[in-house]
Every structure is written in C-alpha cells, then in structure tokens.
Amino acid sequence: MTATADPVLLTLEEALTEVPPAPTLVWGAGMAPLTWALSASAPVRYAGLDAGDARGVTVPYEATLDPALGEATRLVCRMPRSKEGLAWILDLASARLPVGGELWLGGHAREGIRSAARPMEERVGPVVTARTKRHGRVLLARRGPGPAREASLDEHVRRFDVPFGPTVLRCVSYPETFAHGRLDEGTRRLLTWLEHAPRGKRILDLGCGAGLIGAALATRDGTQVTLVDASVSATLSARATLAASGLAEHPVLLADADDAPRGPFDLVITNPPFHEGREQDRGIASRFAAAAARRLTGSGRFIAVANRHLGYRDDLSQHFRKVDVAWEDERYRVWCCVGARTA
User: Domain residues for 13?
Assistant: First the structure.
C-alpha cells in the first residue's frame, strides 16, 4: 500500500520494502505515513518532531528530539533543514545503533541529499545509494565497528545573549529551531519596537520559535505569557530560553495554531514563518491571524512582523477590520491589527 504522495517518503517506502524487515525507528516531522507501510513487517516506532505528527499513528509514538533506539537496528530519517540537524542525526546514529545497524536517509535533490553521503560515511559507516527516483535519493549507512561515543544533544545547543531594555535575555537554541544559534532579523526588529510599545497583560506568542519574543514580553511585571509552537525543537528551545532568563513560570505548549489555548488574550504576537518545509507558504500568516482573531478580547491586538515584500495587508484584512503598519524600515514591517472578524 502506498503510504503517501510525498515523493521522498514514497522513495523511502520503496527502498525499505525491497530489503528484509528489521526493528525500525522512524524519526522526523511528517513521516507518519511511512509507518503505515512498514508496521506490518517488523516492530516499528515513530518519533515525531511536529505537533501534528501523532495524528493517525498506529505504532508506538513519542514527540522527541532525543529518541532512544531501544531494540531498533534501523533508523529511518528525512534530510533535515540544516547542517546542525544532520550533525545531530549522525551523532545519534553512530552512538546508538549497534554495529551493522542501519541509518536510512531520504531526501530530494534540492534538499542537498547528495551532500549528506560524505558526513554519513565519516561518522556512521560505509554508505551506498539504496534508491534514486523522483529527483531524490535514499542513502544507507551501516555502522562500522569500534566503540560508540555517547550522543549528547547538549553539544548541539547554541546559547547567546540578547539585550532587551534594562535586561539581558539568554537565548537557548536546539537544532532545527528557526534561526538556530542566531537572532533573526525579524525578531531583532520586533524586539526593538516592543521596548517602547504597549504590551498587554495576557499574551499569546504564536509560533514562538526559541522564545525570545515571549521572554521579552514576560519581563514586565504582572504579565502572563503563553508560548506556543508546533515544533518540538522550538518548544524545547523556548522552555530553555525562559528558564535561562529567569522566566520559567510562563508555559510553553507544543500545539498548532488552531489548538492553542483559547484565552482570551489582550495581545497575540508572532514572527510567522512563510515557508512550509522548503516551500514558500504565505497562508501560514493568514492561519495565524485567523487563530488570533478567535482568541483576542474585544480590544485585543494582533502584532506580526514580516518582510516588506510579503505585503500581508490583504491576508490580515480577512480577519481584522483595522490593519496598520506600526513600524517599518527598508526590509521589514510590524503590522498591528484590531477589530477581529470572528463571524
């Protein structure tokens, strides 16, 4: 049975069904359909990285960036977005797979899958191309002999300080978090604007990433901030950022925008992504605006920062009666929206 229309998962499925079954851990965002095709042939577990990964899963599941392999002798992953994400996969595979255990990595040509072959061979073991199809390929590395070093996720964490008004926030970033290890330009501009902007008492940071925006808002006395992101790595980062900044009492939740707490909130704020994986998706901002409109008080505001070229006025106006540019420079705009259209 075909698991999915996703070309990378289809190619992985075909490659895996051509070899004898083995106890398998499937690890990564959006890979649940692959487990449907594999689960009948050998023990299969799934470690997801996104809030929606558990939907429809019929095998043992956990959401984690640091999975235990248990009895699995085969680890199946998709090419991650970043070099840091790939480095963590390779560290974990080399440390936790048994000698002769297999790391299967699928990816599209535009994701740079061919470039993964050399580091896989250097850090795990001999690599072969198990399948090429649909402009992608599946690489297979078998763990070579020799002692395994302990895999520590903490070695891949990045920490840096960000001044905000009279305070200094400590950002903690885990692999595969947006802008891992750096302050992205949209967040930088939004933080500068927030130093002098009214904030509200009950706040929702939607798509919180590493948690810097939520942490900055939480520095004001009497403020309660709830941080939400659909990414496991982002929520790990946000919790660590709040703890390192002395703000651990504010909750961080793993959830899609539609499943965020209902509030009501005085302020919903976001630096929304405009990519879904590697594809541009401007609809994400519209979905965030729709979710915000349903969660705000009557006088509540929705604040979003975005690249100027994205526009967004029409998207935001579908959900709010009044949409203004609160601040802008040559590259970014901060949008302020009030008057939610909830009918």
Answer: 7-152
Task: Give the Cβ contact number of residue 231 at 10 Å.
Answer: 24
Q: Within this chain, do residues 184 and 311 fall inside the same structural domain, yes or no?
A: yes
Task: Give the burial class of 256: count Cβ atoms within 10 A of its Cβ; 0-12 exposed, 13-18 middle, 19 or more buried.
Answer: middle
Tell me which residue has tokens 């992205």. 184
183 and 324 assigned to the same domain: yes
221 and 188 within one domain: yes
- pLDDT per residue over 30-39, tens digit each? 999 999 888 7
| Number of domain units in the chain | 2
Backbone phi, then psi, for 228, in 5-degree steps? -135, 135
C-alpha angle with apex 115: 78 to 38, nearest 5 degrees?
25
User: What digits encode the pLDDT tens for the residues 111-169?
Assistant: 999 999 999 999 999 999 999 999 999 999 999 988 778 889 999 999 999 999 999 99
Asked if residue 1 is part of any domain, the answer here is: no
Q: Are residues 185 and 328 in the same domain?
A: yes
Q: Is residue 2 included in any domain, yes or no?
A: no
Residues 6 or more apart whose CB falls under 8 angstroms from that of 48 comprise 28, 29, 31, 32, 54, 57, 61, 62, 63, 232
Beta-carbon-side half-sphere exposure of residue 110 (alpha carbons within 13 Å): 7
Is this structure's pTM higher than 0.85? yes
